[in-house]
């Protein structure tokens, strides 16, 4: 099956009328089945507060019944041409060697965000999506920290990702989490925009 080249799209809601306030994404790939060696993220309750109302959430692994909700979340986070079709998202979630973590509100049990990442000698952050009501509450940070923990446990020594050169909000987010720009990928996105490749060393891997 041919997969769209839209891999590694982290945006902070840059669609018209949405501003640049939303933690939203890198992009592409999928998950693998849980094993006994995987860290139990679901046992951790995280409380966040910020510009929006405080929220308490847990990080757990993707479940098949999450798909429609995550796909709708992706449509809300990104404009046509950047958001995924159902076929693309299913392909990425099922990609060999990848995993998906979901942030779930402890009161409503509704997903508030998700991250997809892929293992290897160098791990890859594929996508981060966070719903509008949970942005600036630490959901994105909790997701990326949990993904890095999982990648470190899988033996990854570093993790990389891509983001658009004009996405200053995403660059700020990643730099706050220890990522550094290592190169530029010309015309990476379907709209012709270049991508910056960022990398972070995972100490203790």
Keywords for this structure?
globular, eight-stranded mixed β-sheet, disordered N terminus, 21% helix, 205 residues, alpha+beta, 8 strands
Number of strands: 8
With helices defined by DSSP (H or I, 4 residues minimum), what is the helix count? Answer: 4
Uncertain runs are: 1-52
User: Which strand order spans the largest sheet, edge to edge or round the barrel?
Assistant: 1-2-3-4-5-6-8-7
Task: Give the fraction of residues assigned to helices.
Answer: 10-25%
The N- to C-terminal Cα distance equals: 34 Å
* Oligomer category: single chain
Largest sheet: 8 strands, mixed
Strand content: 25-35%
Compute the average pLDDT. Answer: 76
What is Rg? 15 Å
Order of helices and strands: EEHHEEEHEHEE
What class would the helix/strand composition place it in?
alpha+beta
Instruction: Sum up the overall morphology in one term.
Output: globular
Describe the protein's architecture and organization.
This protein is α+β, with helices and mostly antiparallel strands. It is 21% helix and 27% strand. It has helices spanning 67-77, 86-93, 139-153, 168-176; strands at residues 45-48, 55-61, 98-105, 111-118, 122-130, 158-164, 180-185, 195-201. It has an 8-stranded mixed sheet with strand order 1-2-3-4-5-6-8-7. Strand 3 (98-105) and strand 4 form a beta hairpin.
């Amino acid at each position: 099956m041919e997969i769209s080249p839209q891999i590694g799209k982290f945006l902070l809601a840059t669609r018209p009328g949405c501003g640049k306030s939303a933690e939203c994404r890198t992009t592409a790939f999928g998950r693998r089945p849980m094993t006994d060696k995987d860290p139990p993220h679901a046992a951790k309750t995280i409380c966040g507060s910020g510009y929006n109302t405080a929220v308490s959430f847990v990080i757990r692994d993707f479940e098949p019944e999450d798909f429609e909700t995550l796909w709708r979340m992706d449509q809300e986070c990104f404009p046509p041409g950047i958001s995924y079709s159902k076929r693309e998202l299913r392909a990425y979630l099922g990609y060999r060697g990848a995993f998906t973590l979901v942030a779930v509100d402890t009161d409503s049990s509704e997903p508030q965000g998700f991250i997809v990442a892929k293992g290897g000698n160098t791990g890859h952050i594929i996508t981060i999506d966070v719903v509008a009501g949970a942005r600036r509450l630490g959901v994105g940070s909790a997701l990326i920290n949990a993904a890095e923990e999982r990648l470190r446990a899988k033996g990854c020594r570093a993790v990389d990702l891509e983001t658009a050169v004009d996405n200053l909000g995403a660059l700020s987010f990643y730099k706050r989490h220890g990522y550094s720009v290592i190169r530029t990928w010309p015309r990476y996105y379907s709209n012709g925009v270049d991508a910056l490749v960022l990398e972070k060393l995972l100490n203790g891997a």
